[in-house]
Model the fold of this input.
Amino acid sequence: MDEQNKQTLKALAINDDQWNEAMVNSERTVMLCGENGVNYWLKKIAPARGFWRYRALNFFSRVTGLTLLRAVPQPGGVDALVTERNRIKQLNQAGVLVPQIFAYSDHWLLMSNLGQSVVSQFKDSEVEGGYKKQLLTACLTAIKGVHQLDQCLSQAFVRNMVQVNEDQFNMGFIDFEDDPLMVMSLPEAQARDLLLFINSVARFFLKEQAFFEQQITDFLLNHKPEVIHLLKQTTKKLQWITRVPFQRAFGHDYQKLKLGLVSLRHLSKSS
Done:
């Protein structure tokens, strides 16, 4: 570790023993607690993901003409950390709530802890349904706020959204190891954000379909025409998925995908 990073760790009150333990920990992301009581996240290097999976997804995207389904490269290794640093810097400068990077090397990033992952609230069976509805609205408001700043996310799954410590309905974003703008336009990337979010959160609202659909409608109100057009085009081509026979045989994952597409069905029916 270079001297500048050593001084940064000292300033953050992270002692050598804790740092060394975190570096040898088998987990890729490790929470560190400074002696001042402040928590940080250490994110370490990782290998590239699923080459063949990306090729298959790109093939499906070309065959169907659905650009939103184009695979975004996730290079892994040093390149992934460089991408994450650059994306966080860009989003932070634009005013998006993302972690602050305190120190880094080719093999790790040390970042601030924004708060608690919102997905744990959605998963908790003890959390009241009305509160989950408020969280859904807050998540969609946060994503739309990113789009209004002419930005996009990387992997807009609900697992990558956090409730900031000061305000449970103020959402921040994590995980930026890939850059959609490498393979698609900004409107395409923004439409993709919504598709990824819908299909990751739909399972928590299987019994609240009308509410879920209205939230998506509200999200799209006054959104960019290009984004709405892309979502309309994609939804229209994928509506067959909602009509396949023997739907129960496809299990819970199918139900999640179906609800996401159903929530956009009014787009496919409009001119």
Summary: The chain has a mean pLDDT of 84.
